[in-house]
Structures are given as structure tokens and as C-alpha cells.
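Suppose you are handed only two things: the residues of a chain and a line of SMILES describing NAP. What would the bound structure be? This form records exactly that question and the answer produced for it, so the two can be stored side by side and reused later without any lookup.

QUESTION INPUTS
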Amino acid sequence: MISIIVAASDNDIIGRSNKIPWNLPRDFKNFKTLTTGHTCIMGRKTFESIVARIGGPLPKRKNVIITRQVDYKAPGCVVVNSWDEAMDVIKGEDVFVSGGEAIYAMALPHADRLILTRVHTQSDGDVRLPIIDFSNWRLIHEEQWLKDKKNEYDVIYQIYERRH
Ligand SMILES: NC(=O)c1ccc[n+]([C@@H]2O[C@H](COP(=O)([O-])OP(=O)(O)OC[C@H]3O[C@@H](n4cnc5c(N)ncnc54)[C@H](OP(=O)(O)O)[C@@H]3O)[C@@H](O)[C@H]2O)c1
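ANSWER OUTPUT
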């Protein structure tokens, strides 16, 4: 199964200056719970933003990095040059597409599941959620997480499955 996992503001912003524009530890924790032990596919810029934040690749996960650079080095990770090459590497195992904008856009036609944290704010940013036709997706789970001392915004957490 190919799952897109993404957090987006009400105005569809997902990033700013190669960072996530909000502080929602609950969402990070959920991302960690869902993805640990599995494969995360991400663009080179998202990978570098993760390294800047936590000092290395996502631990306890296979990190597959997509770049056009043929000589890109990412120790402990699998580096590929296209979506098709990523699909060859994962050989049908469950994967989580973990951003950013470019990689979500290329994954969208292939994804079976969309895990969306809708962050209730109008955000400034420079990367966006690709346009999603929600008529192709069935909502199978929804919950609300209210803001608290650690999590700065209310969110709606949603899981969609593709309609076939
Ligand atoms: N809110 C969320 O859930 C979430 C999740 C993840 C990331 N983000 C945010 O998203 C932003 C990063 O996203 P982004 O769109 O700028 O970058 P990105 O998708 O992470 O990475 C873009 C890079 O991917 C490679 N790439 C793109 N298309 C390709 C193709 N067709 N073939 C081969 N390689 C290709 C290129 O790498 P090279 O330049 O090396 O060739 C390109 O520069 C950051 O702000 C990050 O914080 C948000």
C-alpha cells in the first residue's frame, strides 16, 4: 500500500523555508508511530530538512530519497533518481510518502491512502499541498485534536482511501 502522509494548513501550505511552519508534537508523534518499521519516501529537500532537525535520517525506517543528482550521498539511506526507481526498490512493500510538494505531486496518482492532518490556520509558506480531487477519495477516519500547551493549533486528522 502507498500512503501519502501530510500536514497542511487550511490554505494548503505545507512548508516554509524548508521547514514545517508549525509546532505540533502530537502530529510528529503520530507520524513516528505510523511510519516506524516501514519505508518513507521523500524528496531530497525534505530529507535535508529532517537531517537539519534531528541530525540524521528518520530512525528505524528505510529512508528512500528521490533526487535528480546521480552522485547524491545519503549514508544509511537508499538514493533513487525517479519515482519508478523508488517503486523498484520497495518491491511492493507498504510505504509512506513523506513529502515535500514535488514528491506528493508525483505520488498522488499512485497512492492508495491519504493521511491528512488539516492544521486550522492560514499559514505563510512557499510549498503547497498538490490539488487533490476529494471526489476520488473516501473518508474512512476522522478525529479532532484540540490545541494545548504544546500543540499550537487545532487540527482535524483524517484518513482517506482511494475510491476504485
Ligand atoms: N507539512 C508536511 O507534512 C510536510 C512533509 C514533508 C515536507 N514538508 C515541507 O516541504 C518542503 C520541501 O518540499 P519541496 O517540494 O521543496 O522539496 P522535496 O519535494 O522534499 O524535494 C524536492 C527535490 O526532489 C527531487 N525531485 C523532485 N522531482 C524529481 C523528479 N521528477 N525526479 C527526480 N528527483 C526529483 C529534486 O532533488 P534535487 O534538487 O536533489 O535533484 C528536488 O529538488 C519543506 O518546507 C518541508 O518542511 C512538509
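WHAT STANDS OUT: Helices lie at 25-35, 44-54, 83-90, 101-107. The pocket of NAP is lined by residues 6-7, 14-15, 18-20, 42-46, 49, 66-69, 81-82, 98-103, 106, 127 (CB under 6 Å).
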